[in-house]
Design brief:
The protein is an alpha/beta fold. The protein folds into two domains: 132 residues, Rossmann fold (3-Layer(aba) Sandwich); 222 residues, 2-Layer Sandwich (Dihydrodipicolinate Reductase, domain 2). Helices cover 30% and strands 26% of the residues. The chain has a nine-stranded mixed sheet with strand order 16-15-14-13-7-12-11-8-18. A seven-stranded mixed sheet has the order 3-2-1-4-5-6-17, sandwiched between helices. The radius of gyration is 21 Å and the shape is globular. The mean pLDDT is 97. Bound molecules: nicotinamide-adenine-dinucleotide. The site of nicotinamide-adenine-dinucleotide has 24 residues, from helix 1.
């Protein structure tokens, strides 16, 4: 095991700060078996964002180029948390420099680049360098628990999945132009939040075998340029110069799984739903519902045959459910947790794998770049279906 691990995060934006915080807490989760962690650098081309995040989260310094991080001898592990179109260059550069890389989803903005990144990841892994992708919602206790209920046969085979990831960061026409509104068909809401929803769907229900009924819509055609740098979904001050929105505000599609069928809807214009990943999954023996706005609970229906008393029940999640026991400083029932905790579990899982802890003694491993490619193939199929009047695309 390494004597210590030096850590950097590239991107000090909305999700970069979640990664920066997660590496701070990773060694405080569960048993103290990780090597000492050194929080070394936050890399951001915006020096103000980088400097502020480094001071806030206790990193030794900040850098303004990814190359400085690639060249630094005191850095072993890097999260890449910048615009999707920048992932390939930065990830490939870091892997070539021998850094372990955790890349944000979606793997890239094009399938071609994602496949090249997966090739680079396989080559790096042969040299002992890990590349993983952060599908954070697999760390969400309620989602991991529903998966267990399906896999262990309590719920049994999935018959029908109905999922939505509604966000509203773009519902106001005054929301500033940003990298999220640029790119080809399917690079908008579908890539941004549809990547999460499709990953969760396959995590629960197994492989999607075909996509049909694809629909992509841009409902706000232009957006004002911001006057300064914009972070995440911030509604910054804007100028009176507008640029065209290139990609989807809304996407919908249907899917077939090995054992069931599903429908999906994603949006960035769903006013009032800032971050609503919500789904219902119907199985042989009952059903379950999850809503990210209430991450501490699931709704569970088990068909126990008593007829008139059957119905959904609320299950409050706690130490008996995935991730919680030892995974919160105070892990008592009904203490509560949220999306930031999932980034902590993700960082911990990545560091456990890098540190060489046996898989059986570790959190479930992070997803591989090949899984990132698979996810982009699904998104690509949705876009292809949408561009062909909803045609069925077999995967
Ligand atoms: N897992 C999740 O829940 C989750 C949530 C949000 C975003 N994301 C993903 O994280 C990534 C970043 O999204 P975000 O919302 O944090 O973006 P953001 O716009 O808030 O932040 C991006 C940051 O990157 C910086 N930057 C731009 N070019 C750079 C470069 N060449 N080198 C270094 N820094 C550079 C910007 O200055 C900015 O601070 C995306 O891939 C997104 O899909 C994941």
């Amino acid at each position: 095991m390494a004597e210590s691990l030096g850590i950097a995060v590239i991107g000090a934006g909305m999700a970069g700060k979640a990664h920066a915080a997660a590496y701070r807490t990773a060694s405080t989760l569960y048993n103290p078996v990780l090597p000492p962690l050194r929080l070394v650098s936050i890399g951001d081309v915006n020096a103000e964002f980088g400097s502020l995040a480094a001071r806030r989260f206790g990193y030794e310094r900040h850098d303004t180029s990814w190359q400085a991080i690639a060249e630094a001898d005191d850095i072993d592990v890097v999260s890449v948390v910048i615009a999707n179109s920048l992932h390939r260059e930065v990830v490939e550069g870091l892997l070539a420099a021998g850094k372990h890389v955790l890349c944000e989803k979606p793997l890239s903005d094009t399938l071609e680049d994602a496949r090249a990144m997966a090739d680079a990841a396989r080559a790096a892994e042969a040299r002992g360098t890990l590349a993983r992708i952060g599908f954070t919602f697999r760390r969400t206790p309620g989602i991991a628990y529903i998966r267990e209920l399906i896999r262990t046969g309590v719920l049994g085979n999935v018959l029908h999945f109905s999922g939505r990831y509604w966000t509203d960061y773009g519902f106001s026409p005054a929301a500033p132009m940003s990298w999220r509104y640029k790119g080809g068909p399917g690079s908008g809401a579908l890539a941004d939040v549809g990547s999460h929803l499709t990953y969760v769907a396959e995590f629960l229900c197994g492989d999607i075998t075909s996509i049909s009924g694809g629909r992509l819509s841009t409902v706000i055609g232009k957006r004002p340029l911001p006057l300064g740098a914009v972070m995440g979904h911030d509604h910054a001050a804007v100028s009176d110069t507008f640029e065209a929105v290139e990609n989807d505000d809304y996407a919908a599609f249907n899917a077939e799984f090995g054992t069931g069928a599903g429908s999906f809807e994603v949006s960035r214009v769903a006013a009032g739903h800032a971050n609503s990943l919500n789904f219902e999954v119907f199985c042989e023996n009952g059903g379950a519902k999850f809503d990210q706005r209430r991450p501490n609970e699931i709704q569970l229906f088990l068909n126990d045959g008593t007829g008139t008393e059957n119905g959904y029940r609320q299950v409050i999640l706690g130490p008996g459910h995935p991730y919680i026991a030892g995974g919160l400083a105070m892990d008592a029932p009904e203490v509560g947790f949220g999306q930031n905790d999932a980034f902590g579990y993700q960082a911990r899982a990545f560091l456990e794998e890098i540190a060489g802890l046996p898989e059986n003694d570790s959190l479930p491993r992070c997803a591989t770049f090949d899984e990132g490619v698979r996810n982009m193939e699904l998104l690509d199929a949705v876009a292809a279906s949408a561009l062909n009047n909803g045609k069925k695309i077999t995967l």
